[in-house]
User: Fold this.
Amino acid sequence: MADETTVIPGVEKGTIRDNAEVLAFAMIIIFFFKTFVAQQFKIPTGSMRETLMIGDHLLINKFIFAKAPSSLERTIAPIRPVQRGDIVTFRWPLDRDQDYVKRAVALPGDTLEIINKRLYVNGQLVTGLFQYHTPQPSIDAAGQQSGAVVPGPWPPERFAGIPVPSGGTWPFVESDTRDMNRQGMQSLITDRFADNLPLITIPPGYLFAMGDNRDNSMDSRYWGFVPMDHLRGRPFLIWWSFREGAEDYQSGRVPSGPLDVVMDMTDAVRFFFTRTRWERTGVIPR
Assistant:
């Protein structure tokens, strides 16, 4: 007589249930990893060029700026406060459903001013190879519009004749403006503060963020300070860089529905070998 195995009622599971439990467990792990550890992020515009190129796919360290870390947490994990010069991702104050990537140029208590496109923090000129200005419009020798980027630092005569605005106050220095819920609102200022900004002090609980491509970046100059509690994390790796258009300076598509996602995937398959920037794979953005 063949051996028979007795199964306790309720223990035996069907294939569908078994696979569903595995899938559910995998989704929980992915959700936990994305929420608390790291997240993938794609650069859609040239506001951080050349540090971050359009089409760079980043991994974001989401726990590096954890609030009030204990000494044990600082020992076993790379947790620290945000520092000047950090590249940060954050919820955009005007629409917290959107994530932005910029450079934190000034922290609470710092003084900041912009004179003829030059950034001064605590009275010191802040510049470096990370900083770029894109001529608007940019015309090459043949008379054609170009996406050429001019690296800094720049000689003072480049900005000769650019006046510092007299009168008027940057709206975001007012406490009522800082404290209001700006979700869904429009920027309060125009381009006149992009190249020249009167001396201000960064208030407690906020930082000032700017894109490295200074002439092509919507940042704190336009929509104000970034609340510290809006910080998402810090990019720590470019795991793939894919040129979105025919040229490096062409902005990528921000998916707004399933069709856009399908189009992005189709382009990635068609142009994987010809548009992948192999030299940027594995680069640590700084």
About this structure: The radius of gyration is 24 Å. Residues 83 and 104 are 7 Å apart (CA to CA).
